[in-house]
Amino acid sequence: MPEPIFQPLPDKPDHPGLEQEMLTRWDAEETFAKLREQNRGGPTFSFVDGPVTANRMSLGVHTAWGRTLKDVFQRYKALRGFDERYQNGFDCQGLWIEVGVERSLGLNSKREIEEFGLEEFARRCREVVVQSSEALTRGSIRLGQWMDWGRDYFTFSDTNIEYIWKFLKIIHGRGWLYMGHRATEWCPRCGTSLSQHELTQGGVYQERADPSLFVRFPLLDFEGQSVVVWTTTPWTLPANVAAAVHPDEEYGRRANGEWVAVKLFPEDTFVERLPGRELVGRRYRGPFDDLPPGSQVEHRVIPWEDVTMDQGTGVVHIAPGAGGEDFELSRVHDLPVLSPVDEAGRFYDDYGWLHGLTTTEAADQIIGRLGETGFLVEAGLFTHAYPHCWRCDTPLIFRLSDDWFIAVDEVRPKLLEENAKVEWVPEYMGKRMDDWLRNMGDWNISRRRYYGLPLPFYPCSCGHLNIVGSRAELEERALGGLEQLEELRRPWIDRVAIRCESCAEPVERITEVGDVWLDAGIVPFATLGWENPQWVEEGYATGAARGLTKADLPDHEYWEKWFPADWVSEMREQIRLWFYSQFFMSVALVGRSPYQRVLGYEKMLDEEGREMHASWGNTIPAEDAFARMGADVMRWQYCAQPPERNLLFGFGPAEMIKREFLTFWNSVKFFVDYANTVGFRPSWSALNLEGALDPLDRWLVERTHAFVRDAEGAYEGTLTVAVMRAYTEYLDDLSNWYIRRSRRRFWDGDDHAPFQTLWYAIVQTLRVMAPIVPFVTDHLWRTLVLDGPESVHLAGWPEVPEPDRGLLDEIAAVRRVVELGRQARSNSGIKLRQPLRRLVVEGTSLDGHLEEVADELRVKDVELGPVEAVELRVKPNLPKLGPKLAKELGAVRDALAAGEFEELPDGRFRVGAHELAPDEVLVERGGREGWAVASGDGVTVALDLGLDDELVLEGAAYELIHQVNSLRKERGFELTDRIALTVPETERELADRHGEWISREVLATSIDVGGALEIQKS
Ligand SMILES: [Zn+2]
Ligand SMILES: [Zn+2]
Questions:
Q1: Confidence class of residue 926 from pLDDT cuts 50, 70 and 90?
Q2: pLDDT digit string (tens) for 347-386?
Q3: Distance, CA 494 to ligand 2 centroid (Å)?
Q4: Residue 413 burial by Cβ neighbours in a 10 Å radius (0-12, 13-18, 19+)
Q5: Contacts of the segment 914-918: beta carbons below 8 A, 24+ positions apart
Q6: 443-447-450-455 Cα dihedral, nearest 10 degrees
Q7: CA distance 373 to 516
Q8: What is the pTM of this model?
Q9: What phi and psi values does residue 37 have, to the nearest 5 degrees?
Q10: Which end of the chain is more exposed for a tag (fewer CB within 10 A), N or C?
């Protein structure tokens, strides 16, 4: 037997296997390098990668989602000839890294870290980044992500740090930098304050049961009277200085002397009622006046308009050292501020018997004491959403702290103006950004930690704040210690004192490090060489990044070329994190957004819709997914996902995708098998079809062009889900119409036009889908394209003419009639193989396609005319209507089932407030006796169900043909093998009447009657 023209395909693709093979070939052939070379000097597409935190030792499937989207659009732009940067980034500092190292070393407090030694601690942190970045790179390559691996940026490089220094110096020049003294959210385990945006991350607010206390404060000048407050944080009571009432609300005194808001206790009887403002100024005895701090305070009732009447007593306990709003009130009313706990959340020594206790440990003792002293009215439990540290999960407290802030009010209008120019996909995410920009407070940039950007602030006792803006400036002003400066990092940098530029006295750096979002936010400047006079080869590989990357530090011209990014993409959470920090820094530095278009996407959950947690056993390591589903199937799952909804990721959906993918695989295999049989050999130079084509071939060409155009629009709109939808519809047309209708021409094999047409369609599809499923498309490309570009990724985007939409609409109408005909048939219970006499079609013209419809539906005659319908049943078309109606779907379905709808023109229906489009409903019409009716999209068909002997015999012939062909397949006969057929005696009439037809269909050279059904090669 001669060598087949095309390598035969197995029944199913082995995704992981063929992916490994492709990785090896891409590597050997340097496919990615060739692609970059091919596009060099082309128009630019600038993408800036949001850095992944390098603290995990393997790629997670949620990270793989974002990486896939980044890869898809870079690949698409590359197919279109765009020159791209492909720089990957790693985030390398901050609590994520530190806490991991602390755990691995068994350290539990800042004191233990300092005893361990900051130098060694810094080296351990770097080691985590080294190992994690290697593991993440391996995983990403396996995923098929094409990046300039080895030239990644690492945010702990000295260069990155210097750029942030420069930014801070500029900010200070504008007067936006200040040190704030305030009560702020604080993690007692990490010993640092947290910023507002850190609290917006997922998992921060968790349900928690806390003590719920009603406590009375006895009034000093009103014997037997007290105000009653409610609190869920007993530890803050020793820091109480005031009780706030709403000045305009009514308060009542119970018979036992307790004052509470009337609105909150409508059932109670009161012996006296007063507006809140009349209680203001009354003095009371504090709950812990026996401890030194409380004894110094004159406690009093203050007015506060923000006292709410939805829970508690309407009287609010105020502890300015332990609450954010409380602290603001202390400024307005000049209240003393008691700060009860230290950095680790333990009571200070002057709190007597409480000293050394944590806020949680103190709770029980405080409650017991209040009971003994008669302050306690009632104690219980209260469950609420309470903020926890995003990294170590410790419940946060409020604590007084001196932190460094960037004031945002002056730049806020410009931020809003610039955000309005950004194109956000989906649109609502831009609205979220806008809300955030309107409402965010000043940016707290300091953290009392170790492994982070050293804030270059050197305050002097003379009152001057020195800010170092670069390493060169540091070296120039240093009083010593430069020789030991390994990196711009603690502890080395702390040993370099400088001279105050105002009074010339030596000054030291504050010990705080910076918020990690400064590290990631500066990336569009630090990696692109903003204001850098000269290109430095490997110039980004400084400090801790030395030896990890070969990234250059480009010059300013390069920045001009690549800034702003055309596109960035991350999950929605990043709106207040990376999207924000780089946006803020960029608007502050150069007055414009660092990106023009954003793709955001929601969260990943497991396939049942639960959060993925290691402790629940439902996380999926990417390694497992690569091995069990393959990277293409993962990428498909990510790309089919609408970005505005949570992705339910798992092996179940993966199985469905594999099955769905088989339709395409089978179409290609069909082509390969028959093309090998007839010896069809395509040529790349004759890719585009020329000359007069058979109408069906011409239609497939036009349909393919429409698909290419639709996919192009979807890619340009950065919506992979729209590419996937276009593909699914196209594939249905390709396999369930074109191949179905053309089967006989492929079997006959004497006309090569259908082979050429199908080859064209498949090849173009591979090019369109290559960004989404890069492995299998390249594998099939190498099977089908014998003399063209060696890889689909080097073949460019198909340029196609505007399709003939008229022709496409015409065939779409034919397909709709056929679908309705099938629906009518399946409702009637008559087999598809049984020929019927007649079909009546109403609502469409079917110009010149009556015969095709008759053939497809196996009816003798198709007539156009009115259908007499008697009963109308409408059901929701779930795939279309489900996403549109969401929660209201149930109500609409019930209304439809109950017949509560109105039929509108053009196949639309009204149900309550909803108007349903023709493709959103499935319509059945019960017809006259003996007819099956179906309708939809404004078209109605009626199938005559009457059978006669002739039709029944024909039906039997189709049945036999089907049986014999199944048998051929079962026995593994070649497509071209001829057979001798034996049929049972009962089929004699069939053999007599339809023998010739049957022989043709099953390639039989003879039919014998008598004995069991049997075939033999002849
Ligand atoms: Zn923490
Ligand atoms: Zn000074």
A1: low
A2: 999 999 999 999 999 999 999 999 999 999 999 999 999 9
A3: 18
A4: exposed
A5: 914/885, 914/888, 916/876, 916/881, 916/892, 917/880
A6: 50
A7: 47
A8: 0.85
A9: -65, -45
A10: N
Classify 151 as helix, strand or coil.
coil
CA of 187 to the centre of ligand 1 (A): 5
Taking the centre of ligand 2 as the mean of its atom positions, its distance from the CA of residue 1004, in whole angstroms, is 104
Question: What are the pLDDT digits (tens) for 440-488?
Answer: 989 999 999 999 999 999 999 999 999 999 999 999 999 999 999 999 9
pLDDT in tens, 410-436: 999 999 999 999 999 999 999 999 999
Kindly state the tokens that stand for 901: 């709808």
Neighbour-count burial of 371, counting CB atoms closer than 10 A to its CB (0-12 exposed, 13-18 middle, 19+ buried): exposed
What is the three-class DSSP state of 214?
A: strand
CA nearest to 336, candidates 291, 298, 287, 304: 298
State pLDDT tens for residues 588-617.
Answer: 999 999 999 999 999 999 999 998 887 788
Q: How far apart are CA 864 and CA 848, in angstroms?
A: 12
Distance 496 CA to ligand 1 centre (A): 29
Q: Which amino acid is at 680?
A: F
pLDDT score of 1 more than 60? no
Model pLDDT for residues 958-978, shown as the tens digit of each residue = 999 999 999 999 998 887 889
The ligand with the least distance to the CA atom of 186 is 1
Give residue 464 CA to ligand 2 midpoint distance, Å. Answer: 5
Q: Which residues make Cβ contacts (< 8 Å) with residue 44, sequence separation at least 6?
A: 82, 83, 84, 561, 562, 566
The number of the ligand nearest the C-alpha atom of 499 reads 2
By the 8 A CB rule, do 544 and 154 touch? yes
- In the chain, what's the furthest Cα-to-Cα distance? 119
Q: Which long-range contacts (CB under 8 A, 24 or more apart) does 418-422 make?
A: 418/583, 418/587, 418/591, 418/592, 418/593, 419/583, 419/593, 421/593, 421/596, 422/593, 422/595, 422/596, 422/597, 422/598
Q: What is the pLDDT of residues 12-57, one digit of tens each?
A: 999 999 999 999 999 999 999 999 999 999 999 999 999 999 999 9
Cα–Cα–Cα angle for 261, 263, 266, rounded to 5 degrees: 110
Cα–Cα dist 630/637, whole Å: 11
Buried-state track 590-604, b at ≥16 Cβ within 10 A, e below 16: bebbbbebbbbbbeb
Which DSSP helix (H) or strand (E) runs through 516?
helix 516-521
Q: Whose CA is closest to 454, among 479, 474, 484, 481?
A: 474
- For residue 95, which ligand has an atom nearest its CA? 1
